[in-house]
């Protein structure tokens, strides 16, 4: 369901309007009789599966850095 509120009402009742939006209602904010914005609930993105890129970290990744390279990072 969608309802329209004027800017002044939106400013006065913002917390209540946001609560309505959280419950799934859509609210249009109008300046006079001209709609200027629509508040809609945010839809949570689906969970992404880990491992979506076929890559394996080489064992050498976990070896200590050579002293000269380590010194460059610590400088």
TrEMBL record:
SUPFAM superfamilies: YefM-like. It comes from the Bacteria. NCBIfam families: phd_fam. Belongs to the phD/YefM antitoxin family. InterPro entries: Antitoxin_Phd/YefM (IPR006442), phD-YefM_TA_antitoxins (IPR051416), YefM-like_sf (IPR036165). Antitoxin component of a type II toxin-antitoxin (TA) system. This is Antitoxin.
């Amino acid at each position: 369901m969608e309802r329209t509120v004027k800017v002044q009402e939106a400013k006065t009742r913002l917390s209540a309007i946001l609560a309505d939006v959280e419950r799934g209602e859509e609210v249009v904010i109008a300046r006079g009789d001209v709609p200027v914005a629509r508040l809609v609930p945010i839809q949570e993105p689906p969970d992404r599966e880990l491992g979506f890129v076929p890559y394996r970290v080489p064992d050498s990744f976990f070896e200590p850095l050579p002293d000269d390279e380590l010194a460059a990072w610590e400088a």
